[in-house]
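Lecture notes, unit on protein representations.

Consider one protein chain, 281 amino acids long.
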Amino acid sequence: MARIDQIEIPQTTKVWFPRTKKKALCIGINYKGQDRELRGCVNDAWNMAEFLKSSWNYASEDIMVLTDEPYNLKYMPTKRNILSALRWLVKDAQPGDCLFFHYSGHGGRIFDLHGRRVDGHRADGFEKAIHPVDWESAGEIMTEDLYDVMVKPLPTGCRLNALFDSCYSGTVLDLPYIVTPKIGHPKRHAVNSRALTKYPQAHVVVFASCSDFQGSGGVIIGGGEFLGAMSSAFISSLTTNPTQTYLQVLASVQDILLRTQWQTPQLSSSYPINSGQQCLL
């Protein structure tokens, strides 16, 4: 008998002419029945999947959604399933492909007893992590794990955009370039240029909902629907204006968040982002 946490991997659309392949993985975890239960993360995952289909031409069969809804046992976001889904996302990635990863759920900072990294990203002595639904028994998924499974396999010319709507997510993938927004003037600075020697040539960009030291909040929209503030702001920004640059999206998201939240979104990348570079999902 198959285990319920062994997910069925959907087949990616096959085409017989050269074109950009798009794949996406959206994860939303409410931790129903656990301490620190959340309410908007499952909504975030489904909303993001619909946004990618309706606005960015992702095919339904090329989007995997993991949520902890009781009827969704096959796609439950356990640690095992999340890592399997990440492998599906990057499997057979080629130059020109465009991948998207979205996570809405708890994030954490784990004290690094071994002192593996103290170079600016972990100078505070903590490693970043995300919490699968079974994290209390299976453990967190650490930055190193996310990098090894999701970033390291990507080839030159492949593009990965990621959005983390979770606490302490500012440098969750340890990318070398960070953009922290200031009112009307985003500022870029290299945090760990040595990372350039280990990162592949793939274009990896992360939108994080807050800094490494902040929590990430939620909003309630008309009708009483709970949503993650970052996920909602990101979709709202690019729905209103889909032809923005990365820096414009960051500034727009910050403006939206400032209406209700105290968190500061961040953008990080594996390469320097110039002011005219369009945000393409």
